Amino acid sequence: MQQPSLEELSELLGYLYDGHIEEDPYGVFLDKMRALINANFASITMREPSNEDGGLIFISCDKLQKTYADAHDNPYTDKYYTSNLMNNLPWSEVMTLDQCSPYSQLEQTELYKFCMKPLDIYHMIGMDLRNAYGQRFSVRFCRSKDTHNFSADVKQFLSMMAPHIQRAVANGIQLINLDHERRLYSKTLTSKSIGIVTLDEKAKVLSRNSVADDLLRDKDGFHIVNDLIHFDSGKNKTKFYEYLGEILKAQRHNEQAAVFALSVERPSGKSPLEVLIKPMMIDPSVEPSRTPHMMVFINAPEKQYDIDIKILMALYQLTRAEALLAKLLAEGANLDQSAAQLGISRNTARAQLRSIFAKTGVSQQSMLVSLILKSLVTIS
User: Fold this and answer.
1) What is the pTM of this model?
2) Disulfide engineering: 212 pairs with which of 208, 248, 268, 273, CB 3.0-4.6 Å?
């Protein structure tokens, strides 16, 4: 291969470290890598397929779509993933297919006949790396049969790239999960119950979710004036800004700030709003201005919350069936009720629950519910 210039390498690494925010994650990076090492196929398998889970694979190939997420509409994730010839490679070691399985046997395998040959892929090189949670993910590059196998300089280049790929994917997963947690915290579990308003270091509103917008629109007990929360009751207003002052003072002195609660009566006669003011972790030495310093949670007791299964699937790597079961359990149904509502047997529900436990790291149903409802539990 022709070694990339410093400018080309810098561009390549930029695409790698930004890969997690692309519409087709890591797609541009894989495209660039293919061109650089003369490959006609490249993939990052974040999650290997299993019986129920179609896995998560990012692909660069002229004949395939870019992303396969929990998909069973292709031969590999539907059936032939169990025939993977480069399985469980030594951590971070770059290896070629012929080091794992002789070419004399390759063309006799169903994997080759039904998955590789239709895509004109024959030679393969790759490595297994660890994600942010220590779990295995794999990177593979392929060439057609009528080209040469991957050379030593390609292997050396991939060995140099391996720690960058591992770091980029690990950081990307953490950022994505932080975003999912934020969305789970401020959108999904609270989309129909908890209003959330984020305030800066001057107690000015930075952002608010749709529930907060609805409550503010009602002007039933509080509203916004010049980016500041204004309460109808003078007593509530005084108390609220006293609490904010204490939080900001503690943050300026790098001290533990308290959490404050406030009951806000509404002129409409509805049950009082339950307001909670929670400080955020702040490092004064690096924190710029106009950044989140505290969050105000407003609960209207008459509202109900909902849980978005797509966020549960993304956050905890659950299958759709597992996320549906977890949702029902979190909403208060027991296992038998959940199984009946989903139209599955109790044994199937129990098997799914065991899988949910393994993926979420809990061991009891009550712990699972607490985990899913952690935002509401935290502020209760």
Assistant:
1) 0.56
2) 208
